[in-house]
Structure formats: C-alpha cells, structure tokens
Amino acid sequence: MTERGEGEQMRGSVRPSFRGLDVLAVGAFGGLGSLVRWAAGEGLPKAGVPWGTVAVNLAGAFGMGLLAEAVRRDRSPESARRLLWYGTGFLGGLTTFSAFSGEAVHLGAGAGIGYGVFSLLAGWAALRAGRRLSAGASGRSAAERRAGQR
C-alpha cells in the first residue's frame, strides 16, 4: 500500500490501497459464496459423484476466467478491487479445495483419482472458457487474445 492512498504500479497495473471497506466486502462476499456452496451441496444429488462440489468448483473456475480477463484488460484500481471483492471474496467462498480433497479420498483410490483428474481438467477448461467469453465480449480478435495469453 502507498502512503498517498492512490495505489502503486505493479506489473503494468495499478494496485489500489485497500481500505477497511474492502475487508468488510471480502468477508461479506465470501460469506455469500459459502452460502451458495452450501445450497448447491444440499440441492444437488450426492449419490456417487459429489455434484455440488463439482458444480461450485467449475462455476468458480468459469467465473474466475471471466473476472481475470476483465481485470487484465482494465488495469485500474477499481478493477483490482473487483478482483479482491468478487475473486477472493465470493469465488473464494464459493469454491472449495478442502471438500474436493475429502471427497476424493472418500471415493477411494480409483474413483478418487478419476474425480481429481476430471475436476482439474474440467476446471482448467471452465477457466479458459470464461476468459474466452470475456475476451470475445470485449471485441478482441483471436490474434489479440492469443498475444495476450503469452
């Protein structure tokens, strides 16, 4: 954080000086994300594959892709604040590595490894899809999107 309160340059973007409101917002959005995760776990079938955890983790990866691409394009303090509130807060509360890990162990060696591999690959694909959708919405060409991914 800077003494001026305006933000500082970091890797071509502006990092804002976070305030007390940011702490409250991250906590509030994190709590909201956790409630959505709980509701998904309660509302989706639990037989065999833990669909609630799969759903929230894939939705979170997709959401992070959308958000990351938007923040990458708009390197303002407000954009960094959105990443903090919605990425760290809501998506951090929504997604769950601990439940994923516990469920993989509970499924047993074969199914747990398959669940883990599927979750990682599907999460990566969801993140990429979110980034591509966000980049496409900005009107960037395919060549511009490829150049921005390097």
Automatic annotation (TrEMBL):
Na(+) is not transported, but it plays an essential structural role and its presence is essential for fluoride channel function. It catalyses: fluoride(in) = fluoride(out). GO terms for biological process: cellular detoxification of fluoride. Keywords: Cell membrane, Ion channel, Ion transport, Membrane, Metal-binding, Sodium, Transmembrane, Transmembrane helix, Transport. It is a multi-pass membrane protein. It is found in: Cell membrane. Na(+) binds at residues 92, 95. It comes from the Bacteria. The chain crosses the membrane at residues 21-39, 51-71, 83-101, 107-127. One of its GO terms (molecular function) is metal ion binding. Pfam families: CRCB. The keyword Kinase does not apply. HAMAP family: FluC. Belongs to the fluoride channel Fluc/FEX (TC 1.A.43) family. Fluoride-specific ion channel. Important for reducing fluoride concentration in the cell, thus reducing its toxicity. This is Fluoride-specific ion channel FluC.
